[in-house]
Amino acid sequence: MNIVQVSAELAPWSKTGGLGDVCGALPRALVQRGHRVVTVSPRYKAYDGAWDTGVRARVHLFGYTHEVAYYHLERDGVHHLFVDHPSYRRPGIYGDDNGVYGDNLFRFALLCRAALEAPLRVPIDGAVLGEDVLFHANDWHTGLLPVFLEANYRSVGRYPTSPAVLAIHNAGHHGAFDAHEFAGLDVSTRWWNACDMGGRLNCLKAGVVLAAKLVTVSPTYARQLCIDHGHGLEGLFSHRARDLWGILNGIGEEWNPATDKHLETNFTADDLSGKHAAKAALQREVGLPVRPDVPLFGLVSRLDHQKGIELVMGAAPWLLRQDVQFVMLGSGGAAYEDFVRRLAREFPSRARGIVGFSEPLAHRIEAGADAFLMPSRFEPCGLNQLYSMRYGTVPIVHATGGLADTVPTWEPGNGTGTGWAFRDFSVDAFIQALAFALQTFREHPEAWRRIQDNGMRRDFGWHRAAELYEALYVAAYGR
Ligand code: ADP
Ligand code: GLC
Fold it and tell me: Which of 140, 247, 383, 385 has most ligand 2 atoms within 8 Å of its beta carbon, as the pocket-test mutant?
């Protein structure tokens, strides 16, 4: 199959969260299954090794004709196309210190249009892909791709068999804009109904209506989208439930404790000495007392309403009265960032809070912590709990979405489980899970070792997900 994956983020070149990681990793796994995969994402800045193909496309949007250029880089068999346009070359992906960019609808509509032109114009291995490709769009940023596919191409006989699949990584963001912006998309008004939600132009909804198949990143979140986590689109998701698949994300090879280049000491499930060294190194790096015996809790997160930081705020005074250490890394909402800084000031010998985005430190927290906190309010899949398990770091999570699907609670009776998943979204339930974890760490080291081992031996490779995506694409062609 020829697969064109379109996304606003693509790790390692652009990333604010798991969307980037997934869009970077899935294509590699699909290539290993024999598919040709081309990614299309914005060229936010110059990327080493990505060369101007010389190919240009002109598209009409918001009353003007805009020219985009395509830069190309091949890595691990995947062809990456970076769309160049002045509106992408800014400090942030979606916004900066002054807020979200006012022209995001234009920027991402342009991405969709550029992606739809790419197979017709850009030579890949010496020839253009042509009109038989599968488009795999991701989240609201590319929700309009199925609209443009129908309106600008299919209606005039182009791409006659090419389906579009929409992957929903987070239904909390719709990309909703004033209705009058619709005129700027330069498509016939017969497509307004698909885009209209409550009188506004809604990019995610348009994609959900028009994509041949829908996929989200865990089976539980696929069900929740239809019931109570669809952010107003529950009815539509239920209507399309048969086309909505739930496929758990995998994790990429850059998150492997045996080879992680951000660590001074690597380790495996058979020998955790490198993990013990990573804990000491983390304690030194953030300036906490170097003590192997103290339980070290870690948190790496976008500081967003989704992530349940309120529960961390509620439980932290209780947690930090104990003999524990807590290292937080995150950025996002101002009130959450204040909390992260304040906690470190209030508990100088126990807590450290780093406000910012640091890939190396995220790896070192995953490696050095004993336990990882992820009390998300909702979580489509979640990657950090997967990284944690792979690094022998015991996740303590709210049982929602992908967290419920991937973290079975420790059962001392039969020795199963990889962490703790609490059911009620409440500070009390969170504290209870933390208390179980603390007690197990302190009083039952052999059980703790078993929990670590259970997690480290799980297989979260991308190959299984890739097989399911392949089946999804086949189903999309059949529709
Ligand atoms: P989401 O995509 O909702 O943010 P995921 O758990 O799927 O949640 O993925 C988050 C990804 O972003 C992980 O790779 C995580 O390590 C990374 N991440 C989040 N915040 C930071 C940060 N402040 N610094 C470095 N990496 C971060
Ligand atoms: C989203 C979700 C997260 C998921 C990630 C990758 O950002 O919030 O749960 O793991 O996308 O699919």
Answer: 383
- Residue 408 backbone dihedrals phi, psi, to 5 degrees: -75, 135
pTM of the shown model: 0.96
Closest to 241 (Cα-Cα) out of 277, 201, 214, 220: 214
- What tokens does 351 get? 């807590």
Q: Would you say the CB of residue 383 lies under 6 angstroms from ligand 1?
A: yes
| CATH 3.40.50.2000 corresponds to the domain 273-456 | yes
Q: Is the dihedral of CA 233, 234, 240, 245 positive or negative?
A: positive
Ligand 2 pocket, 380 CB below 6 A? Answer: yes
What is the residue extent of each domain of the chain?
2-250+462-478, 273-456
The finding on whether 8 has its CB within 6 A of some atom of ligand 2 is no
Q: Determine the pLDDT at residue 479.
A: 76
Distance 385 CA to ligand 1 centre (A): 11
| Averaged pLDDT, 71-92 | 98
pLDDT in tens, 239-254: 999 999 999 999 988 9
**273-456 shares the fold of 2-250+462-478:** yes
CATH number of 2-250+462-478: 3.40.50.2000
In angstroms, the CA 350 to CA 26 distance is: 38
Instruction: Please classify residue 266 by burial: count the beta carbons closer than 10 Å to its beta carbon, then call 0-12 exposed, 13-18 middle and 19+ buried.
Output: middle
320 neighbors 292 (Cβ within 8 angstroms): no
Does the CA dihedral 433-356-360-6 come out positive or negative? positive
